[in-house]
Amino acid sequence: MRAAGGHNNWTDGLDAPRLKALFPKADDATLAWAWKMALHPPTGTINCLALNAKGEMSGVTTTAGLAWKIPGRVGDSPILGAGLYVDQEVGAAGCTGRGEENIRVAGAHSIVENMWHGMTPKDAILDALKRVARNYDNDKKRLDKFDINFYALRKDGMYSGGTLWNPQGRADGPPLEFCCYGLPSM
């Protein structure tokens, strides 16, 4: 894919000399800050699901963008059913974290499909997390190498969010375990 100016999204991205050439009036401190932000951006992928007063649902999943771009990689955000899925009759779901693992389980679609079959958003998310873990034979040492987060909103307003690991389950914290938050059953 090429932009009008010929920029190729599949190249190695920006480096310090190219930044200086692109922004010749920027001082070294500003370029150093820009480079630091590109290497370690303060934000990443974001998912937002909405239900309006008329009962219409919408959703969006952004991508972490150029700062995390690996040449040739397509993440889960633009793949329907992976990074985002909305079904006006049932609900919506989205994902952040390691996109490759989400693509393997079609996470957003799987969650919405589970809700279609009567699961609560929390149970639907837990099922998707278990699918990810199954792909690694539930090996916690391998699973501890990445994060994945799911979000779900059902048509009736019930919602939940879940992550592969309890945020306190890393390093010297308690043992790793699935973690899911949301509204209690209505």
Your description of this structure?
By secondary structure, the chain is of the alpha+beta class. The protein folds into two domains: 1-40, no CATH class; 47-182, 4-Layer Sandwich (Glutamine Phosphoribosylpyrophosphate, subunit 1, domain 1). It is 29% helix and 20% strand. The chain has six helices and seven strands. The chain has a five-stranded antiparallel beta sheet, covered by helices on one side. The chain has a two-stranded antiparallel ribbon with strand order 1-2. Helix 4 (107-116) packs across helix 5. The longest helix is centred in the C-terminal third of the chain and has 14 residues, at 121-134. The radius of gyration is 19 Å and the shape is globular. The termini are far apart.
